[in-house]
Automatic annotation (TrEMBL):
One of its GO terms (cellular component) is cytosol. This is Putative phosphatase YkrA. GO terms for molecular function: magnesium ion binding; phosphatase activity. Coiled coil: none annotated. SUPFAM superfamilies: HAD-like. NCBIfam families: Cof-subfamily, HAD-SF-IIB.
Amino acid sequence: MKNVKPEAICFFDMDGTLLTKEAEVSEKSLEALERLRANHIIPIIATGRTTPEIATKMELTGINSAIIMNGQAVIYEGKKVYEDILEPELMKRLTEEAKSQGVEACFYNDLKIRATSHNLLTKAHYDFLGEPMPIKDPAFFEKESINMALLLLESGDDYFKDRFPELQFVRNTPFSNDVLRKDSSKAKGIKKFLDICGYEDVPTYAFGDGNNDLEMFQAVHYGIAMENAVPALKAHAHFVTDSHNDEGIFKGLKHMGLI
């Protein structure tokens, strides 16, 4: 998949970065994305979410490429070009262990989200994200490919980490852990994207705010942290821009000379 190479590529985390606290994209950010494209720079979303959760924002921003589910799949110009599938046997064992602890799970691929059941934490998690609860289908992993799972729990993370050394459990909300392959990350998804497209020598930039953006910063030439970012990410940033509520995207892109 070889294309005319862009001048640069910018990867944008969503929650706490491209999105404001109201889960909106500001007018200045939309203007910045248009100016990026006019300068032959590709904007790409890099998120822990999957396609159904970001479809409206992709349409709004005009962004048609994304590293989704923390690197478990890559969408380029609307087409899936890479995915890591979690084995059905592994998902079955995870579900059984979760049930033994009174924990519900959700399963993700690039098209659907399904839940083993609904409880208060399921509602709390999706309310936190501003998304509806997924359809219940406890046997979904037996029917379709699964790229990422989610455990709904406020504590007890170590129980699962001890029993599933081949997986990683990333707490991204107070109500849940993302469940991924041990070596999966936004960084891995970025490297897969660059390799598939032949863009390894193109300058790369990333904007983020969370712990799951640390590896992403290590996979690009320049990492820009939001003012609201966790201290660890700021410590590894080339530049700290203003917060997601104070036009940090526009100001950061301006500072880096991209718009």
